[in-house]
Design brief:
117 residues, Helix Hairpins
Length: 117
């Protein structure tokens, strides 16, 4: 969990050195997060499953994949920071909810939504 705290502190320092906090409203951060997710999605546009699976083995594509994932993570950390919640704790709580919704004996090997199990 300390890694998220250190990374959040680093992204805050980066932001504050540039006086960008004024632009980082919760709404703007959520919009930016989704724009970055769209850029990640764009890496897969018009590609077959096989081409997408090969991306990590291609240096330029792998760097783009890493960069877009990092952008998403950084914005997500800023969203959690602006909304004042612990992202790691929220993820653990969500994982526990999902475990209850998708018990292994019913969900294993199934793509059904929890309401269909």
């Amino acid at each position: 969990m300390g890694d998220f705290e250190a990374l959040t502190a680093a992204v805050r320092e980066f932001r504050d050195a540039r006086d960008w906090r004024q632009f980082h409203t919760l709404k703007n951060l959520i919009v930016s997060l989704n724009l970055e997710a769209g850029e990640l999605l764009e890496l897969t546009q018009w590609k077959s499953d096989a081409e997408i699976e090969a991306l990590p083995a291609q240096p330029v594509a792998a760097e783009a994949l890493r960069d877009e994932c990092a952008d998403i993570l950084l914005y997500l950390l800023l969203v959690a920071d602006a909304a004042q919640f612990d992202l790691a704790a929220a993820a653990q709580a969500k994982l526990a909810k999902n475990a209850a919704r998708y018990p292994v004996d019913k969900a294993r090997g199934s793509r059904a939504k929890y309401s269909e199990l």
